[in-house]
């Protein structure tokens, strides 16, 4: 959308700048998916969605529980007598049972090594709202946060857009499996200081999006001591905590703090049920701070994005069912492990490696050998080939601010088994074709590559084309999609 | 310790106001008919609790509205996964239709302009983020809802410039007062970006006629500033004349539609504050698009979208609900104001909202806000009613109080009225006839239309509507 000068004067700077991050070319893949989404019967040649970090693998368990627990709903005969109380309940402390259930769930997800205090559970509009709230509480406009890369693309909007706070990436390298090193943190910190950028804290995502790895205890301790030394904050986004499906286990920052000398006022956790339970639509974001002032402030701010009391009520009931939760967590891990294994094995067979991961809903695929040259441009070209030729919407590493070209995040949990097979077949075919090509004369492969390039979606960086709302409107979404998976519109991907 | 933000350490959240003392008194000693008959009665909460029986009946007849019933669980998964910030199409269509119905179907709302937010609280903040930069300001007629101080200013850095309205003309907004406030702001180098009106008004319970709205639209058009119309109480209009929305007036007046924005919610009209259904409806495409992106910070739970979509697309239910709600609000309002008038207490003539704007100026020791606070403390501590002092609404005249009447059952209302009566008698303020005579008085010496007197007879026969207490810190009051 072109912003006329008139609009710029009439509206705020926030409304007319790009900091919402949706003008990234990252969204082209979504567009391709939306206009041609895969369906096993209706559209078998369509684009398969592998850019969406969703966890739909355990809905059978959830639906069974729902049927067996009609009193969890305020709309059933069993729950109706609660309807009025719940419908009028707008206390920003949140339903006590909800907070207790969430605190208990968080504890279980961390292996019961830590007890979370229900009085520190503060609601927000999804993790999207939680991250923004945390920043509003901790930093002033112009301040900055260190964020190890590669990191979740949505941080660009969530941490920066309305807050005016900046992100300073801490680039991590494949040479050591993208570990966050003390040295890298120190270097990024010093560099920022020299440029007069006021670093207020560090944000980590653990388990990592997009890597799918967990931080080990040593790295966690190093982070905690780093922030304590520098007197800056540590925000740990633990939204994928229960997606850990094999060892090593997840270690929450809350656990690490327990046997360390550190300043607890600096430590804050962001959580959500969007990934662990598969409920992104319910907008259950949580800010959990060990700092009383931040807790109080965030709680007041939660008025801007409270969890619907109807949903609080449902989840209070569901998450306090110990047996169900135990069973769910075990089964979810099992199914994620299985799915992850099928994919990574399939990729190995054709010589594609991925970062060794044991968590998350995706893997971090190494396509560097397929790049024509080690540049972001080549990565983008390869990506367009993957979308248009292989017909898979994966996410290029550059959209995660990865400093090394050639890495792609590929989601594996958001589809059924049949679709997994199709996706793997397509990848196999593509890689084998690529190998064939390498055996041909150079000019023949060049010619084909050129043809492919011409067929590629012309990437337009102009915001007006990408953000043409009429294209993105629900009317344009393919009737084949079971759910209108509008691209940019994901609250979180 | 590392500092936290200025926003976090400042007072922009507005909760340090004396206004909240009443809440504290209530929370430590809430009224309960049997357990705590001497407790404080909550009359500071603008909630609409009168029609839940109606809603509950509908829910029993429509199990498919829930994704947790046997009939609805097949939709559970796709709903739980749905996080598209456009919102569920059926939800937007149902809300657009409802908004139209509430405005007498005189105007149609476009579902594609319906943007979600975290309650009206989130909607206001979002609109401020879209329209103004830190340091810029909105004009807001007084008295106004105290939450605006937080919602529009706290995290946005935007300022509010009051447009003083006074009782001499029933607190109506005049173009003169708007012009005066605007120019004064200009002289002080404050950039005015827009005007925010709440229509129907909180705390007044009145709404603007078409001519006033036309003048206001001409004013913003002339100054090239935005008009934000908070119409959260639109369906609480319980008596004629009919409510006129900004959306209706812009069809009749030449104006730049890019300046017009409506904030709406289901918290008051339906009585669902817990469900956090806020709506931003802008006629400006850029604002709509920007607000939609921002809605990610406060989307409506898809579970709730599903419920609301089903409920609000049921035409018969909605028509009946709106009519029934109006009827019950009318009865409650009439009984309350009539009884008060018998005790010698006047209030601003109103026909909307969930509260009355009570005139206690003659009870003030002197015409000051200190005296108002003193009187207020007496009302809380001695009369044991949590009402809201006019100063908390930035009213420029001391002695006015907002008193909510729709958030309690009939019994609590009677207790509240008798406490007021006793207080007035004690203070020799009026010759108040004893209670039983009041009850027997069927021929009322009031100049009422016939339909009104029919309604009067009805409310004396009306069944009790039981409601639980709500001892809470409210997202919105």
Can you put this structure into words, describing what you see?
The complex is a heterodimer of chains A (493) and B (477). Helix content of chain A is 41%, strand content 12%. By secondary structure, chain A is of the alpha/beta class. Chain A folds into two domains: 16-58 and 327-431, Aspartate Aminotransferase, domain 1 (Alpha-Beta Complex); 72-322, Aspartate Aminotransferase, domain 2 (3-Layer(aba) Sandwich), CATH 3.40.640. In chain A, helix 6 (96-109) packs across helix 13 (309-319) and helix 7 crosses helix 12. Chain A is globular and about 70 Å long. The model of chain A is unreliable at 455-489 (pLDDT under 50). Chain B is α/β, with parallel strands linked by helices. Chain B has helices at residues 6-9, 20-28, 52-61, 76-81, 89-102, 119-131, 148-151, 175-187, 210-223, 246-249, 285-294, 302-312, 315-342, 369-381, 410-426, 435-440, 450-461; strands at 41-42, 114-118, 137-141, 159-163, 192-198, 226-230, 260-265, 277-282, 346-347, 355-359, 385-386, 388-389, 400-404. The longest helix of chain B is centred in the C-terminal third of the chain and has 28 residues, at 315-342. Chain B starts with 5 loop residues before the first helix and ends in a 16-residue tail after the last helix. Mean pLDDT of chain B is 89; it is low at 436-477. The interface between A and B is large, with 97 and 92 residues.
Helical stretch tally of chain B: 17
Shape, principal axes of CA atoms of chain A: globular
The number of E-state strands of chain A comes to 13
Question: How do the strands line up in the largest sheet of chain A?
Answer: 2-8-7-6-5-3-4
What is the straight-line distance between the termini of chain B? 35 Å
- The number of strands of chain B is 13
CATH-scheme architecture of the largest domain in chain A: 3-Layer(aba) Sandwich
The percent of residues in helical segments of chain B reads 25-40%
H-E string of chain B? HHEHHHEHEHEHEHEHEEHHHEEHEEEHHH
Total tally of structural domains of chain B = 2
CATH architecture of the largest domain in chain B: 3-Layer(aba) Sandwich
Which spans of chain B of ≥5 residues are poorly predicted at pLDDT below 50?
436-477
Number of domains of chain A: 2
For this structure, the CATH topology of the largest domain in chain B is Aspartate Aminotransferase, domain 2
Q: What is the tally of helical segments of chain A?
A: 19
| Helical coverage of chain A, percent range | 40-55%
| Separation, N- and C-terminal Cα atoms of chain A | 23 Å
């Amino acid at each position: 959308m072109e912003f006329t000068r008139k609009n710029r004067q009439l509206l705020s700077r926030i409304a007319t700048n790009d900091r919402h991050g949706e003008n990234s070319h990252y969204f082209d893949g979504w567009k391709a998916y939306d206009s041609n989404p895969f369906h096993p019967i209706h559209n078998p040649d369509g684009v398969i969605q592998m850019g969406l970090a969703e966890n739909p693998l355990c809905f059978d368990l959830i639906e069974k529980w729902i049927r067996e627990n009609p009193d969890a709903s305020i709309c059933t005969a069993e729950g109706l007598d609660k309807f009025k109380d719940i419908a009028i309940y707008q206390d920003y402390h949140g339903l006590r049972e909800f907070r207790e259930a969430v605190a208990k769930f968080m504890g279980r997800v961390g292996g019961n090594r830590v007890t979370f205090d229900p009085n520190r559970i503060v609601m927000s509009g999804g993790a999207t709202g939680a991250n923004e709230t945390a920043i509003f509480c901790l930093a002033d406009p112009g301040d900055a946060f260190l964020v190890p890369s590669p990191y979740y693309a949505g941080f660009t909007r969530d941490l920066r857009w309305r807050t005016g706070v900046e992100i300073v990436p801490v680039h991590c390298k494949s040479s050591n499996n993208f570990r966050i090193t003390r040295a890298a943190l120190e270097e990024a910190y010093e560099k920022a200081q020299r440029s007069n950028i006021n670093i207020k804290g560090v944000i980590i995502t653990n388990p990592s999006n997009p890597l799918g790895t967990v931080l080990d205890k040593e790295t966690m301790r190093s982070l905690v001591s780093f922030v304590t030394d520098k007197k800056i904050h540590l925000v740990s986004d633990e939204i994928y905590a229960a997606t850990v499906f094999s060892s090593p286990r997840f270690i929450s920052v809350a656990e690490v703090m327990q046997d360390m000398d550190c300043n607890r006022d600096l430590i804050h956790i962001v959580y959500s049920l969007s990934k662990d339970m598969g409920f992104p639509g319910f907008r259950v974001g949580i800010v959990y701070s060990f700092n009383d002032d931040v807790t109080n402030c965030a709680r007041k701010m939660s008025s801007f994005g409270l969890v619907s009391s109807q949903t609080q009520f449902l989840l209070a009931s569901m998450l306090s069912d110990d047996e169900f939760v135990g069973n769910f967590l075990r089964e979810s891990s099992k199914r994620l492990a299985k799915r992850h294994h099928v994919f990574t094995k399939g990729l190995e067979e054709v010589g594609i490696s991925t970062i060794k991961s044991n968590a998350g809903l995706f893997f971090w695929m190494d396509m560097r050998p397929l790049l024509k040259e080690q540049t972001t441009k080549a990565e983008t070209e390869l990506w367009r080939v993957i979308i248009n030729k292989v017909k898979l919407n994966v996410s290029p590493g550059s959209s995660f601010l990865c400093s090394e070209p050639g890495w792609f995040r590929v989601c594996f949990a958001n589809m059924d088994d049949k679709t997994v097979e199709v996706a793997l077949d397509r990848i196999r075919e593509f890689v084998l074709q690529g190998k064939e090509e390498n055996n041909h004369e150079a000019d023949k492969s060049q010619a084909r590559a050129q043809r492919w390039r011409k067929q590629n979606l012309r990437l337009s960086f102009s915001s007006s084309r990408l953000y043409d709302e009429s294209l993105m409107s629900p009317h344009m979404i393919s009737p084949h999609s079971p759910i209108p998976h509008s691209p940019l519109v994901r609250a979180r991907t | 310790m590392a500092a936290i933000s200025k926003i976090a350490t400042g007072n922009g959240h507005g909760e340090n106001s004396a206004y909240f003392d009443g809440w504290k008194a209530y929370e430590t000693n809430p009224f309960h008919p049997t357990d705590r008959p001497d407790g404080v009665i909550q009359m500071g909460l603008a909630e609409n609790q009168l029609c839940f029986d109606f809603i509950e009946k509908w829910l029993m007849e429509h199990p498919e509205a829930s994704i947790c019933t046997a009939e609805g669980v097949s939709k559970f998964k796709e709903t739980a996964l749905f996080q598209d910030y456009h919102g569920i199409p059926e939800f937007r269509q149902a809300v657009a239709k409802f908004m139209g119905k509430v405005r007498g179907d005189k105007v149609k709302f476009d579902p594609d302009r319906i943007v979600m937010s975290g309650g009206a609280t989130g909607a206001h903040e979002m609109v401020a983020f879209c329209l103004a930069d830190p340091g810029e300001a909105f004009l807001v007629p007084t008295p106004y809802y105290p939450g605006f101080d937080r919602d529009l200013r706290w995290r946005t850095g935007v300022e509010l410039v009051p447009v003083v309205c006074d009782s001499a003309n029933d607190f109506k907004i005049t173009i003169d007062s708007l012009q005066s406030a605007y120019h004064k702001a200009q002289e002080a180098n404050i950039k005015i970006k827009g005007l925010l009106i709440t229509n129907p008004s909180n705390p007044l319970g009145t709404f603007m006629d078409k001519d006033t709205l036309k003048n206001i639209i001409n004013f913003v058009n002339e100054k090239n500033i935005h008009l934000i119309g908070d119409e959260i109480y639109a369906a609480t209009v319980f008596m004629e004349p009919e409510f006129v929305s900004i959306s209706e007036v812009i069809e009749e007046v030449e104006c730049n539609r890019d300046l017009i924005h409506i904030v709406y919610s289901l918290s008051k009209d339906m009585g669902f504050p817990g469900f956090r259904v806020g709506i931003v409806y802008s006629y400006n495409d850029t604002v709509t698009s920007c607000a939609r992106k921002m809605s990610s910070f406060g989307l409506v739970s898809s579970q709730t979208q599903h419920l609301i979509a089903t409920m609000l697309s049921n035409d018969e239910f909605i028509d009946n609900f709106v009519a029934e709600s109006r009827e019950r609000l009318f009865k409650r309002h009439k009984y309350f104001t009539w009884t008060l008038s018998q005790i010698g207490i006047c209030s601003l003539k109103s026909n909307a909202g969930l509260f009355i704007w009570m005139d206690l100026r003659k009870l003030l020791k002197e015409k000051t806000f200190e005296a108002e606070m003193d009187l207020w403390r007496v009302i809380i501590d001695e009369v044991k009613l949590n009402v809201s002092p006019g100063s908390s609404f930035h009213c420029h005249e001391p002695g006015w109080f907002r008193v909510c009447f729709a958030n309690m059952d009939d019994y609590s209302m009677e207790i509240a009225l008798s406490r007021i009566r006793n207080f007035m008698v004690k203070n020799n303020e009026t010759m108040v006839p004893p209670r039983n005579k009041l009850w027997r008085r069927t021929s009322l010496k009031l100049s009422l239309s016939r339909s009104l007197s029919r309604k009067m007879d009805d409310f004396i026969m009306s069944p009790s509507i039981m409601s639980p207490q709500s001892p809470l810190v409210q997202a919105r009051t």
